[in-house]
Amino acid sequence: MKIRAANASDYPELRQIYLESRRKSFVWESEKEMALADFDRHTNEEHIILAEEEDCILGFASLYLPDDFIHNLFVHPAYAGKGAGSKLLDAAIEIMNKPLTLKCVSANHQAMKFYEKNGWKKVVEEGGPGEKYWVMVYE
């Protein structure tokens, strides 16, 4: 498995991964309101890295480098549990400066377990009703 910076030719596949992953795991959001164009809006001005195996993109992370913040980390549902997420986290840690932060939706229990298993710690739960998330840190 290779981790590399994304380029413009990767975007169509990254948009699809983002959409399919959210539709499968974001049960608290309306699937009808999700669109391919969300990827571009939600990763604007971010450095995107991807996990690739045999020319197939498994997942990606978008990093907001000025704040050492992981904004998005998504693995295509067909490749979940095969190590791409952990490799993307490791690569983000190498690229950015500690401490790194991210936000994880409180209702996303599977993601929360994944981050904790990879050494991230919950700091504080924020947000309003129906929009709660944990700020997490990696030191």
UniProtKB/TrEMBL annotation:
The protein's matches in SUPFAM superfamilies, at most eight in alphabetical order, are given as:
Acyl-CoA N-acyltransferases (Nat)
Pfam families reported for this sequence: Acetyltransf_1
Domain N-acetyltransferase residue range list:
1-139
**Gene3D superfamilies from the entry?**
3.40.630.30
Q: Spell out the PROSITE patterns in the cross-references.
A: GNAT (PS51186)
Q: Which UniProt keywords apply?
A: Acyltransferase, Transferase
Q: Which GO terms describe its molecular function?
A: acyltransferase activity, transferring groups other than amino-acyl groups
Listed name of the protein: GNAT family N-acetyltransferase
